[in-house]
Amino acid sequence: MRKFFITGSQGIPASYGGLETFADELATRLAERGWPVWVTCELPPGEAPGPEEYRGVRLLYVEAPAGNLRTIVGDRKALWRCGEIAGAGDVVYLLGYGVGPFADGALRALRRQGVRFWLNPDGLEWKRPRWAWWVQRYFRFCERHLLRSADRILCDAAAIRDHHAGAYGVPVDRMDVVEYGAPLVSQVTDPDLLARRDAYLADYGLEVGEYYAYVGRFVPDNNLELMVRGVLDPSVGRRLLVFAAHDERDPFYRKIRGLIDASGDPDKVVLTGGVYDPPLLQALRLGQFAYFHGHEVGGTNPALVEAMGLGSFIIALTTPFNREVLADAALYFDKDVGSFVDALRRAERLPPEEVCALRDRARDRVRRHYNWERITDEYERLLRTDGG
Length: 388
Hints:
This protein is an alpha/beta fold.
């Protein structure tokens, strides 16, 4: 049975973000099915390694610096580390392409050993407006470079596959679409957790069903400014909780804070900061009236699929990616404040049975397609069939 190595995330158990959750969910499921799986884990300088195994997955530790060079240095070391163990027919799977040409030496060594190199390009990082122009150009170069180097490319949305085929002429038979998964959760039953959720909301003068929610990074890419401006419109009745870690020195944070403070209704948008208690965050998301999804760069977004699995009423930006994932399970808005306000007014007028129908359709899409078991089935199929 061929060995499978996952690299490019910060490691497992997942405690950071989407790539880590993906690595955790996929690796542990494959290990349960009998596949020999390794996951590389980044270590800050001077930190001692953790356990050698997690739920049947073997862990490989590589030291990586903090800051902008973390991805380049960490991923390059991780690829070499995988090559020390991998042999002919095995698969090394890289999540993301930020290491770019700095991976070339390791990839040549893997190729000489007969190891298959898979790449998950993880969206269109070079399009994100938060990056300086030269960083965007670097990411675009990395995308093109590693797409040419990969034996197999795993895209998490058909729109990502179509982009690579159109922009770079990548043969479709070298690409597969395998999405991101989420659990199905319908309610919270733990009385202690419910009490903590209610106490959290009470601190802001809120109750279940009274608020909108945004979960994601505090960055311009996700159209947070547009959504804040929309909620501040006097015709919108509900308040917004922004569950996102922020730095008060960040110019974008200061801009959003200034909008809120100057609005005349500064309590209408609450910048809660990050909520690092997963059960509490899940309970808060289950208690929201609707979930805002303004992401416009990327494929199958983890936070969106998680919201679907919770049966959320979703109000989403119109993009090919979001339409692909949500289909008819959401209300949509265009990228302007007026369109967003119109969507909120419509949402607040919808009869309860129509809201329930949207929630049910979202959850059903996870049940039928965006679930970890089906996704693991797809990776297992590829491990059995992808040849040298």
